[in-house]
Amino acid sequence: MYTHKIVGINFRDSVLIFTKELQTDSITTIYDRFTFSQDGALDYALYYPMGSGFCGNEMLSVNNSKWEVKDSTLELIIKGGYSMEGKFGYDIKYRVDSSTDDRLVLTKLEEISIDEER
To answer: Does 67 fall in a domain?
Structure first.
């Protein structure tokens, strides 16, 4: 299992940079946490400092998502939405530009919108 964090993720960006989340990290900023499980599941959680006055408007939710690596291509099948509106589904293929113990850098190769019942 690999757990990485990213601040302000937008799957429409052409480059995504994930950094490793350390167990000793104190939460000092709002960030999105993705856990890449060995069984191919992609889990999501939002973290924010207590007392930050954070509001849930336009909050990202991710569910039933998965990942798979083929050669040097990472495929993410992302399903979710923002708040209670704006549901989305994407099948996105990324080139893995860099993968170390501390950092994962992905460049988008292809994006397909997935239609699903809402």
So the answer is: yes
